[in-house]
Amino acid sequence: MANESRPCPCDIGDRFDYGGRGREVQVEHIKAYVCKPPASTDKAVIVIHDIFGWQLPNTRYMADMLTTNGYIAICPDFFVGQEAWKPSNDWASFDDWLKTRNAGKIEKEVDVILKYLSEQCGAKKIGVIGFCWGGAAVQHLMLKNPHLKTGVSLYGVIRFFEDRSSLLHPTFFIFAEKDDYIPLEQVTILEQKLKQNCKVDYEVKIYPGQTHGFVHRKREDINPQDKPYIEEGRKDMINWLNKYL
After folding, report:
1. CATH topology of domain 23-244
2. Which segments constitute the Dienelactone hydrolase domain (predicted)?
3. What are the residue ranges spanned by the domains of the chain?
């Protein structure tokens, strides 16, 4: 189970020294980071950040990576102006902080972003990816939003939506073998529930030796043995999006 002295379901890992290739825009009441490929496309991906917020360089790097693969990528501020979590914050206050940032209450923002992508960017096929808190949000959206085509949940916090598995759209779940915040027993139960209840294509994949946050972390410079799995996770994510968008 989660370490109660650090109840955070996320780990910032190693930070990218990264400025981003996109730009910040205001979409109705939401600020967002947008990156567009040079060639015109009708495919877009909404990127849902982790607890460290929409300005985290690591998350923007992933948005840019999607764009280099031909997608319009947008990372909105799903905390809508509320402060992101900081590693220096007092972990004792984390649960109270989290109560005002519910991964299951983002429909209003998602609708605004879908409208922007459709009307301002010409997007017709839209998917979603998310990390940790955002990964849980992806699972939530895959259960109920009819306008999204597919999703990739990266180490999404299972306990947020553990009783819900009747997905509407193809969904890929990425987990780390040595995740301190998502025990493998939870992943096994999720797989069982998906097998029983899910009528669409899905995949659950566990990456050996990896820890929470590995796909959007810059660990390959420090731990070369992790590099193949980080690259595999990113490639798998892109391949899934390519298949369903």
Report:
1. Rossmann fold (3.40.50)
2. 30-245
3. 23-244
